[in-house]
Amino acid sequence: xxxxxxxxxxxxxxxxxxxxxxxxxxxxxxxxxxxxxxxxxxxxxxxxxxxxxxxxxxxxxxxxxxxxxxxxxxxxxxxxxxxxxxxxxxxxxxxxxxxxxxxxxxxxxx
Amino acid sequence: xxxxxxxxxxxxxxxxxxxxxxxxxxxxxxxxxxxxxxxxxxxxxxxxxxxxxxxxxxxxxxxxxxxxxxxxxxxxxxxxxxxxxxxxxxxxxxxxxxxxxxxxxxxxxx
Lengths: 110, 110
Description:
The complex is a heterodimer.
Chain A: E1 5-7, E2 10-14, E3 19-24, E4 32-37, E5 44-49, E6 55-58, E7 61-65, E8 71-76, E9 85-92, E10 98-100, E11 104-109
Chain B: E1 4-7, E2 10-13, E3 19-25, E4 31-37, E5 43-51, E6 54-57, E7 64-66, E8 76-78, E9 87-94, E10 100-101, E11 105-109
């Protein structure tokens, strides 16, 4: 079935550096979602993108959906310790099922 | 304002034992899902439901059963626990695009 590959698996950055995680699919996606999971916590919805080439911003977070709707990225500008966690991309494989990528774990050196 | 409630939070089982993980939501959401989370593998869909009386298999359904007799409840049954089922289990519900997750159940099978 449809899958998404997420890279990198881990990223360790100095506080204040930027961070980017990428989500790639071999097939066209109808939509892409991003979730954040803090250590020991549960996934929390961040955003959904549905349009080709769509870009959305939430404060220091920028989300992009590729022109071909096969890839997406999440970019964090000037990371803070509160950004620590695992970031997942996800998509609807049918109207009912949400399938998740394997996630990118972000850790930050203060 | 409970949202999605999972019980228990922690459980240790012996190989071969059966048990039920409980999930309840108070948001009147139609869609509910069960995921398992293992290191490096993201969230994998076990079973899902599009409404009371309707369930379907996800990516990794073997060894698990579900039922949906009411809109609110979506229990996950482990028929005969195996060490490979040691994982963190998350229940999620949604009505629109955003999935809401419970706090998770950490299950260890010895």
